Amino acid sequence: MSWGAPEAVAAVMLAALVLYALSGGADFGGGVWDLLAFGPRAAAQRRLVERAIAPIWEANHVWLILLVVLLFTAFPRVFAAASIALHVPLTALLIGIVLRGGAFAFRQYGPPRPEYRRRWGRVFALASAVTPVVLGVVVGAVTSGDVRLAGGVPVGGFFASWVGVFPLSVGILTLSLFAFLAAVYLAHDASRLARDGAGAGAAAAGDFAPEVARALAEDFRRRALVAGAALGPAALAAALTAGPGTLHFRAALLGSPWSWPLQILTGGVALGAFAALWRRRFALARGLAAAQAALILAGWGLAQQPYLLPPDFTIRGAAAPARTLELLLAALAAGSVLLFPSLAWLYSVFSRPAPRPRPRAG
Amino acid sequence: MNDVMFARGQMAMSLAFHIVFAAIGVAMPLFMVLAEVQWRRTGQADWLALAKRWAKGTAALFAVGAVSGTALSFELGLLFPGFMEHAGAVIGMPFSLEGFAFFTEAIFLGLYLYGWERLRPWAHVAAGVVVAASGVASALFVTLANAWMNAPRGFRVVDGAFVDVDPVAAMASPAAAHEVVHSVAAAYMATAFAVAGVHALALLRAPAPGGDGPGALAAGALRAFHRKALGLALAVGVPAALLQPIVGHWSGQRVAALQPMKLAAMEWLVETRAWAPLRLGPLKVPGGLSVMAYNRPDAVVHGLAEIPRADWPHPLVHRAFDVMVGIGFALAGLSLWAAWLWWRSRSRAPKADASGAAPVGWADGRRFLWATVLAAPLGFVALEAGWVVTELGRQPWVVYGVLRTADAATPMRGLVVPFVTFTLLYAGLGLAVTAVVWRHVASTLRPAPPAGPRAEHGDHDDHGDHEHHDHDHHDHEHQDEHGPRPSHAEDRGEGRGGEDP
Ligand code: HDD
Ligand code: HEM
Ligand code: HEM
């Protein structure tokens, strides 16, 4: 197929989805590990999660907003159709997003009484675990080819297109992916804290004494291995339960010129991430886990082509007028000149080890 | 109520909720940067304490603004897919630009909050300036979208489809300029008077000046702290409030030209007539509405009777307009009072001594302080009322003259369920936010000096809580204890969160 403005916007949307999964998705995964914190270091695990998420989750969250905004600007009919047919799961998704973000903020800024913090911490953790499943259900329904309107109302009603084993397995796959990413990132954070702490004394690592940080790295390494191992069966379940509406999707995933290179690359990166975790090469594991997630989503996006919402809406057919798309692409280009350096600054400031005491200027 | 009414109700509720946090997100960063700049200039610890406490407030409320705004972007589709299907290509542009403003705001707020020790002073101030500027940019872009709904441009309708779409022309709607200026001024005004009210109350409750000994010293320091906060809030709020009626008058003229039936609903003028009066509660100004709309008392103003009864907007538009205008004049009056007090203190009183702790502040009069306390919520009431005027006054249209609200609503039935769900959700969030804000305000009102007279330390105001949570340092508080100087190496967000037993 030819490449034009509609495809370019769709590609940007896929990139935004990948970035959302790698950043915002991992923040949700962090909440999952808050929910599943156990053992003698449960409190320390929760603190590590909170510490990792707090400065960046709002920025990470904007990828999702960008995705929605791009969808309704560039493909308004798809936005309208999906909003109608998937009204119920999208509403559930919203409630999850609102509760997760609100609860996190209240726990952080509210009265620091333990019961108060525990209550909001629970809401935060539960919402973090449920929301990715709902997000996956929406993605699964979009993939299933069952989201269709006839005369402005959904074919089969407001439930048929997303209530089913296939969307649910995609939901579970999404949850495992986010949890996996979060565990790998957290293992890496903890191992760095352990290293900085060993070098510069406990103060540099904050509340985390080096031995605690080391033990936390082990905790999350084990969790990452488990979540990573769960990815396989979850993906298999999704593949086995896919219905007839996904025929095009499956054919493209398996029979395109890019299929086998992509599959082999994804498999290789996944094995690499596993091996790196096994050998405690946490920085490498983090890079490979992120690459694995990105490749999975890229494969999904490529196989969806030329559809945006199969079977009725293709990228071409549903696109907004050319003038809108051109302006949008220009705005995206200008915006990224602003955005990426700022993001890089944010991440670099907060991933640097402890700041050296600096003489006060002025 | 039918499904369309529930959809409208849910949309209205979500917007009314979001706009509070949006307004704070526009204005609060300005206060926080101004306080930091004052600290860098004067070295007075009070300013640092203020900058930190305002930054903390901004952060807590920003999160709620972010989630409620996310809800809105989905709800546009969930509740009014017919609107988005047509309007998306036309006004998606400002929303996309707004996305970048959100990114900038979120990124630089993160840098500002967690970067006190990690950024150089100028970089830290610059990060704060970027937060303040991107807040205004968000308001600008989203208001452009709203202006388009009131005065749609940049497309033609052919057989129900929008063709010849020109997003640039759509953003340059003739309703854009007044709405943007009026809304941004409203955000500054509402937030400034709310902040001013809190610190005025704190001044009223502070121990009286006079006497000597350490107690008097502490009381003097406390008053100096709150005077600084009050002065800064009024320095933003007073000019905005004096400007607002003028901008409102401009808005009225634009509405008269662009949406005559909205204007008629605002004053509930049924018959078209010259010398149309302006009614403010019991007050009736003959020719007032004619002046507001066309600058001439004898100008003819169109009445509602020109359109079918079924298309009349809801009479609430009229009530809301009265509330907004009444508050607008009340706050402008209070601002004149403040300006006069300030001017008088300039010409009469000796200049404040070097510490900035003048024995008597220019705004120390109890009557003025009480008036300021009473005015605290009014800006937000006017803000909400103004949006009711704009949105409800546009009915029955969602895109004025082009698309009816009822035709844009979702075919989904049973919308009472999400309506009730979101009502409960927002009620819960509202309660939780109130608790957080209350704690913030209560710690401000607690009559312990927030900063020692010349202490190098920052913010001590939260110490009361530490009794309950020895291990539970919140990181800002924690940083505050170390004052402006990085006293030891700290790691990111170190010490945040508590043991979760
Ligand atoms: C602090 C808040 C505040 C205050 C004191 C005022 N307004 Fe206002 N007004 C708003 C906050 C606001 C608002 C919430 O920001 C609105 C909604 C849409 C907009 O552009 O601004 C608004 C809308 C709005 C509109 C409708 C604009 C439209 O639909 O395009 C008019 C005619 C006025 N205002 C007029 C006035 C007048 C004559 C005032 C006299 C004092 C006044 N406003 C004070
Ligand atoms: C700036 C962007 C805004 C957009 C795109 C927008 C969009 C909409 C839409 C689509 C509706 C439903 C259709 C209708 O009833 O006309 C609506 C209704 C409404 N909006 Fe807005 N709105 C905006 C700003 C605001 C703000 C900031 C407020 C204030 C708090 C507000 C208050 C309302 C109210 C009260 C209604 C309900 C009207 C009714 O009951 O009929 N709007 N808006
Ligand atoms: C005139 C009305 C509005 C104004 C002035 C406004 C302004 C703002 C501001 C300043 C923020 C930053 C967050 C904060 O400080 O709390 C924000 C957040 C947000 N707003 Fe609004 N907004 C308005 C209406 C809307 C509408 C109608 C939508 C959606 C269609 C919307 C979507 C959002 C979203 C998605 C966010 C979250 C951004 C983030 O995560 O950082 N807003 N808004």
What's the shape of chain A? globular
Low-confidence segments of chain B, ≥5 residues, pLDDT <50? 353-359, 449-501
Order of helices and strands of chain B: HHHHEEHHHHEEHHHHEEHHHH
Strand order within the widest beta sheet of chain B: 1-2
Strand line-up across the major sheet of chain A: 1-2
Radius of gyration computed on alpha carbons of chain B = 25 Å
The termini of chain A sit apart by 60 Å
Structural shape of chain B: globular
Q: How much helical structure, as a percent, in the residues of chain B?
A: 55-70%
Unreliable parts of chain A = 201-205, 356-362
Distance between the termini of chain B: 48 Å
Number of discrete helical segments of chain B: 16
The overall strand count of chain A is 4
Oligomer: heterodimer
Strand content of chain B: under 5%
Which molecules are bound besides the chains? Answer: CIS-heme D hydroxychlorin gamma-spirolactone, protoporphyrin IX containing FE
Q: Pairing-aware structural class of the strands and helices of chain B?
A: mainly alpha
Order of helices and strands of chain A: HHHHHHEEHHHHHEEH
Backbone CA Rg of chain A: 21 Å
Averaged pLDDT of chain A, please?
87
Structural commentary:
- The complex is a heterodimer of chains A (362) and B (501).
- Chain A is mostly helical and 362 residues long.
- Chain A has 12 helices and 4 strands; from the N terminus they run ααααααββαααααββα.
- In chain A, helix 1 (5-35) runs antiparallel to helix 3 (57-74).
- The longest helix of chain B is centred in the middle third of the chain and has 45 residues, at 214-258.
- Chain B is globular, with a radius of gyration of 25 Å.
- The two termini of chain B are 48 Å apart.
- Classes of the chains: A mainly alpha (362), B mainly alpha (501).
- Chains A and B meet through helix 2, helix 3, helix 4, helix 5 and helix 6 of A and helix 2, helix 3 and helix 14 of B.
- One protoporphyrin IX containing FE sits between chains B (18-19, 21-22, 25-26, 62, 65-66, 69-70, 72-73, 76, 102, 105-106, 135, 138-139, 142-143, 146, 183) and A (58, 61-62, 65).
